[in-house]
Amino acid sequence: MPRFEVPVKKMALATGVMLMTAAEALAQEKTPRPVRRVVVSLPDRKLAVLEDDRVLKVYVTAVGAAVSPSPTGSFTIVARVSHPTWYTKGRTVPPGAANPLGTRWLGLSVKGYGIHGTNRPSSIGHNASHGCIRMRNRDVEELFGMVAVGDAVEMYGERSTETERMFGTTVAESEPRTSSGGAAPTMR
Known about the structure:
An 8-stranded mixed sheet has the order 3-2-1-12-5-8-9-11, sandwiched between helices. By secondary structure, the protein is of the alpha/beta class. The C terminus is likely disordered. A hairpin with a 2-residue loop joins strand 6 and strand 7.
């Protein structure tokens, strides 16, 4: 057997393995991701992630203060930003420990509102934001990996049978607490 045949056969085998691996990766990419839905109960100050009407995870959140309530209704996730920059009243806060948006931003189809982390974890569980849904950074990072642009977000201002099923029968204690941070013109 000529000397060049062995390297050619090895190269052909390696090429075949690489092509099979690439084809398998492409097939996995085309596998549809399960449709997920996010439900937020403002009175409960909680957020649930659902897949096929099954609750995958529930998180405690901060919601809008009385002077800057969170919007209610049906929205979609329109943006996903890791390590966001915060823009407010002519000031820019880059990603980092001082950023009020924390480590993740999930922008909603209602302009200026989203679900995000925080640099004030003590605000979680309270009516403390300028309308956005605030989460602990570790929680919003987990949520960030579970949802995609286009996923539905439903925000309820009153209890319903659906929110009771997800969050239980006890409603979080009402409090007139306000936020001490500033609001971004496009992110709350």
